[in-house]
Structures are given as C-alpha cells and as structure tokens.
Amino acid sequence: MERMIEILREILEIPSPTGYTKEVLAHIEKKLNEAGIKTRYTNKGALLAYNHPEPELVIAAHVDTLGAMVTGILPNGHLSFTRVGGLHLPAFEGEYCTIITRSGKKYRGTLLLKNPSVHVNKEAGKKERKEENMYIRLDELVEKKEDTEKLGIRPGDFIAFDPKFEYVNGFVKAHFLDDKASVAVMIDLMLDLGAKTLEKLPVAFFFSPYEEVGHGGSAGYPGSIKELLVVDMGVVGEGVAGKETAVSIAAKDSSGPYDYEMTTKLIELAEKHEIPHVVDVFPYYGSDGSAALRAGWDVKVALIGQGVHASHGMERTHVKGMLATKDLIRVYIEEKWRV
Questions:
Q1: C-beta of residue 8 within 8 angstroms of C-beta of residue 176
Q2: What are the backbone dihedrals phi and psi of residue 317, each rounded to the nearest 5 degrees, phi first?
Q3: What is the DSSP secondary structure assignment for residue 330, as one 8-state letter?
C-alpha cells in the first residue's frame, strides 16, 4: 500500500498537462524497465508496457491532466491563457502554477481574477470566473509586454498547476487524481506481478497522453488486442453510487453502455471476492474506451476505477478504493488465465 501511495506522489509531482506528458512517461518507463518490464512508445506518444508477444487484454489509464496554455502577454507583462481540458476555473482560482517555455525554462505564477483585491474591487466576488476575466500573475519583475518577452515566454507555452498532494487517514487529496490514481494502481500491480509472470500473461498496460481532450485512446494498441479494460476515476456525487472507498464498475457513461459480458464478469468477480464495489452510470463522462470505440477498434471495452470526490477540482480518494481497483484488475486477470 505504501509503495502505491509513494508512486502516486511521485507522478503527481511531475507536471503533465495534456500535450506535455514526456517527463511523466519517462519516469514511468524508467521505473518499469528497472523491474524488467519492457516498454515502447506509440507514434502518437502513448507508452505501452508488456512482456508477452501477443497481448489480448489491454489495461489503460491516462497520464495527462488538466492544465492551461499561454495565449498572450498582457500590457502589464502578465499572461492571458486558454484552458487545456475541462479545467474548472473556480476550483483553480488562486492556485500556483509553472509556466514551461519551449526552451525548457520554468517560471512560477498564480491563476487570479483580474483586479482581484477586494479592497479596490467590490465586485470581485460577483465576477464570473471565465478565461477573459482571469489571468496568470507572473512571479517575475515585469511591468510591460517586452519584459516578459525577454524571459522567453510566448503563446503556446504550457501552464501546469501544482497538485497539492496530501495523504491523511487513508485519504489522498490532490488535483489530478483523475487519472494519476489509476496510473499508480496499474504500476503497483505490474510490480506485484513481476517481469517473469508478465511474460506468461497476454496482458499489456497502456498509458494514454491525450484523454482529457478526447482522443487519447483512439490509437496505438497492439494488433492482437481483444479486450480493453479502462481504469479511470469513478464518479462520486449526487445521483450516482460511487464511493471513495470502493471501485466503481461503470455500466454506461455519456458515450453509451460498456460491454455487457465484460462488465458482468467484473461485477461477478467483485461479488465473489468481496471486493468493495458499486455498479454505476456516469452522466457526464467519457473515457479512453469511448475514444477507442469511436475510432473503430473491434474490441470489448469495460470501465472501472476508484471513486474520486470533487472531480476536476480539489479531488479526493481513499487508499481502500485504490486497493479495491487493484484487486479487481488482479482477479480479472487471474480468472482469465488461471495465474
């Protein structure tokens, strides 16, 4: 358990907004290679890990997170931006961030409402939180556009927000548990199984870099694939069944129902092995499995994941939910190949 949480902490601390995932993928690649697990990159930039020559089951999670991108330099030298993915601006107001230039320089800043001081702006609490009303306050001595240009900052530079990781009483609190909690679960399971066992199992693990913008799972799977088990956050909130201490098994999301046989088998295994779980329908949700099906992959797809509260904001899950997710993946593999 402690190893899994440490893996999660490590990958959360590596910025990976959609489109800038090379550093976190390199970290995962190194960790798996050191354990004797082979990896390769797809042309699009996803990381595949497997030791069997013809994997039939692919287990997928996404490493990319919400973020932002510089769109321009304001007259006062600070930055305008556009969201990358479904960044919920009210939840990220006041958060610290890192601006990453194309040359590799990194600068610090804060996402703020324009004219944010309540001592001069009595409408500060009423202003709608949207891109045109907000900006990135740059932590550099800048007063005009030319000052910032000299730093090498320009439109197209990525903005990564701090995760604010905390682990307390079994709860994990951080931005971007969607979906780095699932990534940590997968890595921990692979290390449990080990390189030798993975040589015998026709199973591959897929780390997607573009899920938050809708096309991460659309390409790159081995040609031998028959099933895709997507591991992504379970929804917690009003109108759904999800719990932070359980694994959610999604029967349907916004893209439609998931494979009946796969989903039924997952439910049966969770019941048989007394794994804390719920069966749920996600009202506003899509996954890498949705992208794979839209792209025309002839595969069966199912979706599971630990419950995550306050998705796309200050998220929280529990180690019990992560362990339940890991256990369900494990027994699904064991049932298919009698490990």
A1: no
A2: -135, -175
A3: H
Q: Is the pLDDT of residue 36 over 90?
A: yes
Q: Which two tokens stand for residue 22?
A: 């090379």
C-alpha triplet 178, 184, 188: angle, nearest 5°: 155
Given a cut of 90, is residue 57 above it in pLDDT? yes
How far apart CA 209 and CA 1 sit, in angstroms, is 26
Q: Are residues 45 and 131 in the same domain?
A: no
| Residue 1 pLDDT > 80 | no
CB atoms within 10 A of CB 335: 15
In this structure, the strands spanning 79-84 and 67-73 are antiparallel
Q: Assess if residue 171 is contained within a domain.
A: no
Within this chain, do residues 120 and 223 fall inside the same structural domain, yes or no?
no
> Quick check: is 95 catalytic?
no
Per the residue annotation, which of 13, 132, 211, 271 is the catalytic one? 211
Number of domains in the chain: 2
Q: Under a CB-based contact definition with an 8 Å cutoff, are residues 76 and 137 in contact?
A: no
List, for residues 4-13, the tens digit of each pLDDT value: 999 999 999 9
Full residue range of the structural domain in which residue 83 is found:
67-161
Distance of CA 251 to the CA centre of its chain: 21
Residue 267 φ then ψ, to 5°: -65, -45
Across residues 126-143, what is the average pLDDT?
A: 97
Asked if the peptide bond before residue 139 counts as cis, ω within 30 degrees of 0, the response is no
For the entire predicted model, the pTM comes to 0.97
Q: Give residue-wise pLDDT tens across range 82-92.
A: 999 999 999 99
